[in-house]
Fold:
Amino acid sequence: MNKPYISVVIPVYNESNNLKPLFSRLTTTLDKLNKPYELIFTNDGSKDNSSEILESLYKLRPEQVRVIDFSRNFGQHMAVMAGFELSKGEIVVTLDADLQNPPEEIPKLIALAEKGHDLVSGVRLRERKDNWFRRNISILINKVRALITNIDMTDHGCMLRAYHRDIINLMIAHTEASIFIPALARSYAANPAEIKVDHDARFDGSSKYSLYGLVRLNFDLMTGYSLVPLQIFTLIGFCISFLSITFVVLLFIRRLIIGPEVEGVFTLFAILFFLMGVLLMGLGIMGEYIGRIYKEVQHRPRFAIKKVLGAKLDEKNTNSWR
Ligand code: UDP
Ligand code: MG
Structure:
């Protein structure tokens, strides 16, 4: 096989009805570019028949399709990471399997990457085809992320992106247990570019992220790329200590002038409960960081591969493929 110039990496989790239309739109678009390419699908422990469909796609174009089959669900970002480790292209493109990112947009990204941008990030149009809740949560999280991390990008949730080989090599050298690929890529990019891309409704099925899954993912993003949550907490602690000492001084003066106070017991409780809430939140934030450290020191493999089609397991291009 010609060494691929473009690698397209696609994470798949229960997407059986989307895979065939995705494949046909991808091949139609990429064939027109007249450049050698490969399609790498990572089946992230799907419970439907995505695995069989991927195998049939592999049989259609064994020269171009590679399929990594995870032994269980390890999450979207790990699925993409495994694809990166196997990829050989000079330009690597990621997109979702649900056709929310139109494959027809890929040539635009590649054109920008060829102009020398090492990371080309898609920015979903304002009229995103997600529900109201997801759209607004995503806008909010993008704002919070911009405030507390120094990752400068407009839409970290869009996976339609193109990466230069150098950035991919830096990313696969990472052995972190939790990763958020757009943020990691941005931290290495020297000459990033953004481009508006179309966004469709899911072709079939529903989002694979539960509310809890989304919260976990975003905690990974915030605690993985910033210490600001901890620092904010320390600042809140300082402010509260300062207010409390002022309060004690005031009460002391009042006791000297007017005498001891008796009312306001419930107010005191309210203040106490509030402070307990703040304390628990702080413990939780600390826990998030400690949890990350815990995962790192365990040194467990980040994912386990059951089977690979179109490549041999030892044909890995880094020794971190484990
Ligand atoms: N995905 C995955 N593993 C998971 C969850 C999602 O590989 O545990 C894949 C999924 O098949 C899709 C992409 O990641 O290709 C984005 O998932 P989804 O469309 O559910 O996310 P959303 O668009 O709702 O953010
Ligand atoms: Mg989606």
Notes: Residues 228-298 form one domain. The radius of gyration is 24 Å. Residues 96, 98, 100, 202, 207 surround magnesium ion (ligand 2) (CB under 6 Å).
